[in-house]
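Hey,

The postdoc asked me to send both predictions to you directly instead of through the lab channel. I've kept everything plain text so nothing gets mangled by the mail client. Protein one:
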Amino acid sequence: MNKKNAVPYFGRRGLIFVLSSPSGAGKTTISRELLRLDDNLVMSVSTTTRPKRAGETEGVDYNFVDDKTFERMTAGAEFLEHAHVFGYHYGTPRAPVETALQAGTDVLFDIDWQGTQQLATDENMGVDLVSVFILPPSTEELESRLNSRARDPDEVVRERMAKASGEMSHFLEYAYIIVNEDIDQSVARVQAILDGERSRTSRQVGLHDFVQGLRGVD
């Protein structure tokens, strides 16, 4: 698949493209592939109090801050959404997302259902939201994927499996559902959703004038 560029007949406001799933269902892999394939999609970089892991880069994977800094940012309404997950705080800085949307760039979010709910109820951002929930084909496969990563100790895997049921109970709050049985098929389906949402009439800026010009109407 090749990267796609939109034909600039008229402008478009960017959209917020959310992928959520229980840990291990594949949203991170799908997200990376989407970013590789699509020139007009950028990743929202979250701020977190979680310690930086080996191989992670500040400002690329996350913005790493201490608890006091996170609390200050929360009090200053600097986050579009924020949540407490597995003992740490995560939040999405508002300013860079708003700048990207205004420029017509789509922003990819890898967040959980709590963050998605906050975005959906934001009076300024809710209209830009497109949400997709990624499900595993089975609980056995989900556990197998978590174990195969060999990154987390057994107790963390058990904690993630215990939390997965509660996370999946929120599937009806999402506009789209994908069962990630095959990663290539899942990426193709997510791309199709993104392309369709980009073409919505309500997202186009200058569409009316463009059509009037085609019709020869002043």
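Protein two:
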Amino acid sequence: MTKPLLSICIATYNRADYIGETLESIIPQVTDDVEIVIVDGASTDNTSDVVKHYADSCNQINYIRLASKGGVDQDFCKAVENAKGEYCWLFPDDDLLKPDAIGTVLKEIRKGYSLIIVNAHVMNKDFSKVLDNKRMQIDTNEIYDESRMEQLFNRIVPHISFIGCVVINRYLWMQREKERYFGTEFIHVGVIFQAPLPAPSLVIAEPHVTIRFGNAQWTPRSFEIWMYKWPNLLGSFVNISEQTRREYIRIQSWKKLKNIITCRAMGIYSLKEYLKCFASEASSLWWKSVVLLIAIMPACFVNLFLLSYFKIVKKEPLMIAALENNENNIMNILRRKGR
């Protein structure tokens, strides 16, 4: 096999039920310019059997099974380190590539961009319903030169928490600091925004990825990740203006009542999180009382309240799907009791 131009880098852990479908969306598009690098963080299910089944018929798959679990950030780093391509497409182990996605990206990376951000659409967990036709609401491709880092930040931050959107020059990745971002869950964001990019970036308007919504493995840790890790990460980029960083931190803040209520409805905020995050905090008595009350309220009732709000008032398909599929949804509770 000749040296590839593009390496599709997948970090996986206990995804035997999903990674086969992901590979089936990728393999038919693979050419001599493409390889697939899969780093398995010591899965305890039969993920290795599934991957080896596909590797037997596709010699462009390089499967690396680690001896111990290191975390998603480290595993993506290992995938890039073992990649031979000039560019790396960081890809999840449960989402799908749309037809001709690889062909489109191959054409664009030949133009020498530092970074390509690929748009996506969102479907529910079993791919039976479209929840969002476009994560980034743009109609034409956009190019951001080296002087427009802040504009790039504003354009892609709402989308870039999804790692499957990132195609990055491998040399650039290897040259940048990475260990500082281990444990953030978003190492790709740290690599991109820790310093200005040396060449222009491309944002592709057409969705080329299908996201399987509601299937994240870190859902039990979502409160910590979204209320602390994500805003703290965004706030660390000193080459982005303080005003811009502060705005994104404000939106995701654990000090916003709306966020606390939403987290309770999703079951990711409870008395445990209250004791960890608020009990010893130097804040007003009324605020502590309110967030304590939310923590001990039945999550199913909060779920029902928010579900009604998003169905009748806001009409946001992604939030509706998240709340309906949540284990705190009253219908799901009744189904479990009826078994």
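Summary for protein two, as requested: Residues 6-212 form a domain with the Spore Coat Polysaccharide Biosynthesis Protein SpsA; Chain A fold (CATH 3.90.550.10).

Thanks,
C.
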